[in-house]
Specification:
The chain is α+β, with helices and mostly antiparallel strands. 30% of the residues lie in helices and 22% in strands. The two termini are 40 Å apart.
């Protein structure tokens, strides 16, 4: 947005403008794939009026909240009273006794149990027998595989000799690289193997981490779970059953959708309903809290609580892992997918200022976000942060669902839950800037993940029509992301994306700018985007690299693309011929794309902290080839787009 606000000869003003105020006052910005809302939030901070579309009701719920954030009050008395009441009801179920004293539990550690198909013995599925570690202290906490006694050991220790007589090799669990091995008979089966009638996993509570409060702060300690701890859990389970028997279930009961999925997890692990992803104590907490939220009359108070509830779900389920070296939770979807956890951790959801993902701490995150929306700051090149000069533009008092109100100036923001294949609500030539992030072919199907949240929003009464019907799932089948790479699926993806891009071309002003990001490692994805771009009436005027992923993560490996390609496009003077002409690339553009990508690789690759690697260079080269594609005929001067893309290759390739 900074670059687009400057003339071509004003490049020396870029950083002053970026760190100052980006002048987009009066401009209308459209995002046809609103996602998490970042583009529109930033555009509105710069003074623009914004319009967003997304097929996903959770995406639009989040974006509306972000755009209205400054109008909310997470610290209201009503919210505080609700939290005190629910916390008091749940507190007795998160206590434990150790050495005759009662303590608050921070984490409950569970493990999946399986009955061997060969010998019939039941065993626990542990990836290893380490509970936590600390490089700073040079310590680890490991447990006996037989009696679960916790041992504090030097971090280099490989074995436990427990007083129960059992020797435990700490690194040798019963799960290794997706294979589960029965310790009794040695039979091996895949982690996803569930027999002919898959059922949800059986769980066993085997350890806890509790806290001690003292004048100097809080200390944390591990202990094995006892019969008393499991009795306490049983009381929570019975209370949940009593509530559901008398009042009906609050937790969603509809089944996880199976049609149109690209990822069969968690279904292949025996989960049929979203409520199966929670244990009974977690369901009790979410039931009591959810019912209290649904009963709140004031819509804005209820929306704040619903946002915190939704964010809080991924750290309060049985797909929550434990980051051993950090001694904190790793939320569900931390790798943008369902990852089956055989040793999940359950947090005490009402601790404050300690414990990642507790409800009070999630509310604190929202409180900080609201404070930022009311008084935003920017990074200062000299260090720290300074007040934003764009503060007067930071929010909408109410987000409309009618784009026409944006064009007439009666509202600052409009969000619609529908496909952007039809933008008939927006007249021709009325949008100044389109800034978006379309689905990356088959990389992620966000609707599969968001349906998890939607089911709970339906229980809360926060889902918008028609998704307020608790039997209706998120539009997984209508999502643009592919679930297969067969020719028919690719053709559908290409045609639907073309319709969206063509609508963007129609509503964009003659001198408007269309900017989108993309990355993918497969040529078929790039060929589809190139075909769409050439046939939608756009001319690409620049391609730039932009860091799109963080420094690391469980989904990072040597071949991971970390940098997106940013396409800057303008309306082509000639109307596109969508049917007859093939899409071709000038032969000279192929060598030029490689030369320019190499130049970026040399400039950015020397800076190791930003990590521009060979997959990023190849991605950028393909983007530049796509950007040069036009409608025409293959001849001595040009070649078909798919042929040109096949000429790109990694360094060292043939």
């Amino acid at each position: 947005m900074t670059g687009l606000s400057l003339d071509a000869d004003e490049e020396n003003r870029f950083w002053d403008t970026f760190l100052g105020e980006v002048p987009l006052d009066g401009a209308v910005v459209l995002d046809p794939f609103v996602g998490g809302g970042t583009s529109l939030v930033e555009a509105m901070r710069c003074g623009a009026h914004v319009i967003g579309y997304d097929i996903d009701p959770i995406a639009t719920f989040i974006t509306r909240f972000e755009l209205e954030a400054a109008t909310y009050d997470p610290e209201s008395e009503e919210i505080a009273e609700l939290c005190v009441s629910i916390a008091a009801q749940l507190a007795p179920f998160h206590r434990t006794k150790f050495n005759g004293r009662e303590h608050e539990v921070l984490h409950h550690f569970w493990v999946e149990c399986r009955t061997c198909r060969s010998c019939g013995s039941t065993f626990e599925i542990h990836p290893h027998f380490q509970l936590a570690s600390s490089k700073e202290k040079g310590l680890q906490w490991a447990f006996c595989k037989e009696c679960h006694e916790i041992h504090e050991l030097p971090i280099e220790r490989k074995e436990i000799r427990c007083r129960c007589g059992t020797r435990t090799r700490i690194a040798q669990g019963t799960l290794n690289r997706g294979k589960v091995r029965c310790p009794a008979c040695g039979d091996t089966a895949g982690l996803a193997y569930r027999g002919n009638s898959p059922k949800p996993p059986m769980w066993h509570l085997f350890a806890q981490e509790y806290i001690e409060r003292n004048p100097g702060g809080v200390t944390r300690h591990f202990k094995k779970a006892t019969k008393g701890d499991r009795i306490r859990y049983g009381k929570a389970s019975r209370l949940l059953k009593e509530i559901e028997s008398s009042e009906g279930p609050f937790a969603p009961i509809r089944e996880i959708p199976t049609d149109g999925r690209s990822d069969q997890r968690p279904i292949i692990h025996g989960f049929r309903r979203y409520r199966d992803l929670f244990n009974d104590r977690q369901l009790l907490h979410l039931t009591l809290l959810g019912k209290a939220i649904a009963a709140v009359d004031e819509p804005r108070v209820r929306r704040v609580l619903a946002m915190a509830f939704s964010e809080h779900l991924t750290t309060n389920c049985m797909y929550t892992a434990y980051a051993f070296g950090y001694r904190r939770l790793s939320p569900m979807f931390s790798i943008h997918s369902y990852r089956h956890i055989t040793r999940p951790v359950e947090i005490n959801p009402w601790l404050d200022c300690i414990g990642r993902g507790t409800f009070p701490n999630t509310l604190s995150k929202i409180t900080k976000a609201v404070a930022f929306a009311k008084a935003p700051t920017e990074l200062d090149p000299k260090g720290g942060r300074v007040p934003s000069k764009a503060g007067k533009h930071v929010y909408a008092s109410k987000v409309s669902d009618n784009p026409w109100q944006i064009l007439t100036g009666s509202s600052r923001a409009s969000i619609r839950t529908k496909t952007s294949e039809d933008l008939s609500e927006i007249p021709d030539g009325t949008i100044d800037l389109i800034l978006t992030d379309p689905p990356y072919f088959d990389n992620l199907s966000y609707s599969e993940l968001s349906d998890f949240y939607l089911a709970w929003h339906q229980s809360l009464g926060e889902a918008e029509p028609p998704f307020d019907d608790p039997h209706l799932a998120a539009p997984i089948g209508e999502n643009l992301a592919l679930t297969s790479r067969d020719d028919e699926s690719i053709a559908v993806y290409r045609e639907r994306l073309r319709r969206i891009f063509s609508e963007c071309q129609r509503v964009l002003k003659r001198n408007g700018v269309f900017v989108f990001t993309y990355h993918h490692k497969h040529i078929a994805a790039w060929n589809a985007v190139g075909e769409v771009l050439a046939r939608s009436g756009f001319r690409c005027t620049a391609v730039l690299p932009l860091r799109g992923e963080g420094q690391g993560g469980l989904h990072s490996y040597d071949g991971t693309i970390k940098w997106d390609a940013v396409f800057v496009c303008r309306k082509d003077a000639q109307a596109p011929d969508r049917e007859s002409c093939p899409v071709v690339v000038p032969r000279s553009a192929i060598a030029d794309a490689r030369r320019r990508a190499d130049a970026y690789a040399k400039e950015l690759g020397d800076k190791k902290r930003i990590g521009f690697r060979e997959p990023d260079r190849l991605n950028l080269e393909r983007a530049m080839v796509v950007a040069s594609a036009v409608l025409g005929k293959a001849d001595d001067e040009s070649m078909p787009l798919h042929t040109a893309l096949h000429r790109t290759r990694e360094r060292g390739g043939n």
